[in-house]
Amino acid sequence: MPSPTIDGTQRGYVIPIGGAEEKLDNPEILAKFVELCGGKEAVITVIPTASQLDDTGSRYQKIFEEIGVKKTYSLPINERSDAQDPGYVKTLEKSTGIFVTGGNQLRLSTILGGTPIAKTIRQLNAQGVHYAGTSAGAAIVSQHMITGGSTGIVPTEGGVNLAPGMGLINTIVVDQHFNERNRLARLLSAVSYNPFLIGIGLDEDTAAFIDHDNVFTVVGSGAITVLDTSDIEYSSMAEARTGDALTLLNVKMHILASGARYDISNRKAYVS
Amino acid sequence: MPSPTIDGTQRGYVIPIGGAEEKLDNPEILAKFVELCGGKEAVITVIPTASQLDDTGSRYQKIFEEIGVKKTYSLPINERSDAQDPGYVKTLEKSTGIFVTGGNQLRLSTILGGTPIAKTIRQLNAQGVHYAGTSAGAAIVSQHMITGGSTGIVPTEGGVNLAPGMGLINTIVVDQHFNERNRLARLLSAVSYNPFLIGIGLDEDTAAFIDHDNVFTVVGSGAITVLDTSDIEYSSMAEARTGDALTLLNVKMHILASGARYDISNRKAYVS
């Protein structure tokens, strides 16, 4: 569950990005994130834990600096003991925006899960600090996080692997590189397990800017596929054997390109 | 438009198959087709025109004979003049079942389109002769036939190429190898052009047995994905530039595994 918001404050934006966002020519998504965080006055802290490359944190610091941010930090959290470090927590608390890079989402959940850093991220977001994460950093936003699964269109029993994520928004399950890696089958499998979940499939260079009312706007060059199984009339999930194709009647799907909006709480898509 | 049925007769089954149907061990789809056509007493005529392999027709004759059919024919129609041959039309008229093989659906439309053979297929089907076609032979069932397009999930303007097909059933657009070749994007593009169309995405070794009431039952090891855009609230198709991701609000999708049914006329899915 998301941390409760404190009276008088609004939750910060939660911005899952589908990976491979434009970083140089016209970094629309990152620039819009910076703008929300205060533009030049923004303080952006990068968490590169998902990546195993040494320079991922400094690379993103440089990108944010090129966009105009004066103050950036990167927290070199590589193991669970790092995520207990009171100094890192203090740095994090100075942020107006937190950026979590791509890599392996299981590194995020296994290294950050249950630590002061994870707790602080959740609390800061509840207090108005904006959170953006790309690829693995997007997946971890989910309470029920996809860690793997089968590609293609048709869902199967056992066709998706879930693990507990950070749960900044608990009713959505986020998938990334969605069109590029043909991930409809695994996202459909996930939302078929329990239709309270809304599936959010993010293409590369595409982000959902989710505001404090749980309404998101699509930003970027691709699309976001929304899967809503709340009106489903029948699912064979409970009876199917592992690997069997499923029968699912009445899945609602929205394909949302740049500028389109979706109200997560009311399960309603808009174009204006 | 399908040929009108004659009083007292029912249209034969129309059976699009998603390609790569099982032919040896347990040829469920082909055996069910044979059963409908009269079992041992069936007279099956194979039309291998889509294929450019010399033995496609004789190969299917052998498969049907192994299933128990005593009388099989193959019509070696390789150019338009062949499709005018009165002898071939006479052979066709003896059939209780017509089987159109895979290959290139543009060979079917360019060679058969507007010929006595095409006319006879439509008339015979209207009079109760069953039609089965795999891959290209499934595509040609559509009035608006998919001949190519982009793969993936997210539809685009220009993301599908259509050509006139045989139109045995004029409200559906059939796609094949659907899960295997990730063809959701192109089928979604097709049904977005005009929502009167229902998209039928057939996995390999999977068939829609469409009866005279336009209700089909799924047979085979994969699934059929049905796309219904009739309740769509918004489509950006008319404004989008070629290659742009589309916004489509409120697409209805059904995933139907073996045994599930769909009523094309009433746009309703069932499991019993």
Automatic annotation (TrEMBL), chains A, B:
<keyword id="KW-0645">Protease</keyword>
<protein>
    <recommendedName>
        <fullName>Cyanophycinase</fullName>
        <ecNumber>3.4.15.6</ecNumber>
    </recommendedName>
</protein>
<feature type="active site" description="Charge relay system">
    <location>
        <position position="177"/>
    </location>
</feature>
<dbReference type="InterPro" id="IPR005320">
    <property type="entry name" value="Peptidase_S51"/>
</dbReference>
<keyword id="KW-0378">Hydrolase</keyword>
<keyword id="KW-0720">Serine protease</keyword>
<dbReference type="GO" id="GO:0008236">
    <property type="term" value="F:serine-type peptidase activity"/>
</dbReference>
<dbReference type="Pfam" id="PF03575">
    <property type="entry name" value="Peptidase_S51"/>
</dbReference>
<dbReference type="GO" id="GO:0006508">
    <property type="term" value="P:proteolysis"/>
</dbReference>
<feature type="active site" description="Charge relay system">
    <location>
        <position position="135"/>
    </location>
</feature>
<comment type="similarity">
    <text>Belongs to the peptidase S51 family.</text>
</comment>
<feature type="active site" description="Charge relay system">
    <location>
        <position position="204"/>
    </location>
</feature>
<dbReference type="InterPro" id="IPR011811">
    <property type="entry name" value="Peptidase_S51_cyanophycinase"/>
</dbReference>
<dbReference type="GO" id="GO:0008241">
    <property type="term" value="F:peptidyl-dipeptidase activity"/>
</dbReference>
<dbReference type="InterPro" id="IPR029062">
    <property type="entry name" value="Class_I_gatase-like"/>
</dbReference>
<comment type="function">
    <text>Exopeptidase that catalyzes the hydrolytic cleavage of multi-L-arginyl-poly-L-aspartic acid (cyanophycin; a water-insoluble reserve polymer) into aspartate-arginine dipeptides.</text>
</comment>
